[in-house]
Amino acid sequence: MGQRRWHNLSETLIEWVIRLCGISAIICVFGIFFFVFREGADLLFHRFDIVQFLFSQEWYPTSQSHIRYGVLALIAGTASVTVLAMLMAVPFGLGAAIFVSEFCGPKMKEALKITIELLAAIPSVVWGFIGLTVMNPLIITVFHAPIGLNVLNGGIILALMSVPIIVSIAEDALKAVPDSYREAGLALGATRWQLIYRVLLPAAKNGLLAAVLLGVGRAVGETMAVLMATGHAVKIPTSLLDSVRTLTATIAAELGEAPMHSDHYQVLFIIGILLFSLTFAVNLIADLIVKGIRNK
Amino acid sequence: MVTPPKKIEVAGLQVWYGRHEVLKNLSFDVYDHEILAIIGPAQSGKTTLLKVLNRTLDSAAGATLKGTVKIDGEDIMKVRSVFDLRRKVGMVSPLPVGLPMSIFDNVAFAPQQAGLTNRTELADRVERCLRQAALWDEVKDRLRTLGSKLSGGQQQRLTIARALSHQPEILCLDEFSIAIDPVTTMRIEEVLKQLRSQMTILLVTNLVQQAKRLADRTLFLLSGDLVEIDRTDVIFSDHPAQRKTYEYVNGIFG
Prior knowledge:
The structure holds 2 protein chains of 2 kinds. Chain A is mainly α. Chain A has 12 helices and 2 strands, in the order ααββαααααααααα. Chain A has 2 domains: 2-47; 68-295, Orthogonal Bundle (MetI-like fold). A two-stranded antiparallel ribbon of chain A has the order 1-2. Chain B contains 10 helices and 10 strands. Chain B is α/β, with parallel strands linked by helices.
């Protein structure tokens, strides 16, 4: 009898531990949101001009005469660098995943996967360093640009950082497609490309979308590398060779110098909330797309 | 008795997976417009034999092959286009695989890849194949829904429709009735009897009674060895040539 009770007790205990692990992610997300929100709440609810914040491109947080907190240029900076990075990283990443999963032999596959993981492990400050010392002179020579720290530089660096994530998640998604699909497709006389395009990609689309989203998330949230590679100029870019500044880089660069609990300090936290909302919106939209596809 | 023309000629066929020999020196012919049942316990090499015919064995890692297989007198290892060969050989796998596309596209896929783009012709082809697979009436109002939303039995008939979609001359069915109920199985068996007038059918089955019901001839495969191939009534008689055949079809072993 005693043994039985002990058994039940441990069963319940294990169930609770696992439940706790499961909801810990939710607790963390809400916790982070709460603390970021708290730091910015005082300004946000009392004397905050949200229209100026979102639609003005004038970011003068330390002006002597007229302080203005407009982040439109910073949003444009983040958006331009992210979009450029994804334009390069998504086709490359998915292409590489298709190659690794469907085309190359086992030895090559092993070598590629290890290298790709290695690429993912390079710290972002090293990427920033590459942007600063390798890409910068290269862009100046090739495009005759006055300065090589710009959208193009940041975009390329971010693309290089996102590709390994996209490749490994997308490759997992393709690997998860049952072999019976491949056999059925081949038996119908499909060529390799027809098989990939009509069968494998549709079958793996949820995982592939997740891969792209994680890439976007990485690009939007990346701080150090873009801080070093984009030139840090508050300006809505009109060409790839314009310097920009991103939301994340602004927080990183200015938080240390803003006096604790000053308006400037709080605005930086509001930018944090904005970033939070942006990634949340991206994830939500993707989720809806996936659900839409599934219910079709 | 006039010998019917030979559709498939297999001579000295050997297949290894790594160092494991799964087909051991098989030689036999398949005649045009016959139903040939291939019976034998698990691990006999039945599925491998079918994979040789449409050369999907090519993409299996570590498989090697010796001997010749001819279809219509042409060595399949030397055909110009393996894709044309695969269209000539329809394949129905044991577990239904609804490809991740609509019911219509599942059936239209192969003809489209082969270059049929005329919409009315395509629609006709899809309807005809679905009718042949006894599925049309159940799906005609929802051809645009995903093939994978169908029930198991319906998906199995969908794979049969798909296998017919590229108008094969040889139809291979690998244990098509594992996933479906007896009533549907009987319906498909009726379909197969009708299809015999249009094509040659190879039927791999674990149900010896199914072989008895359908097949003109039956081939008994045991651990990669061809034990016996003969008219079905001989195989199922009290005196097939091999003692083992008698024991297997009567459930004494296997």
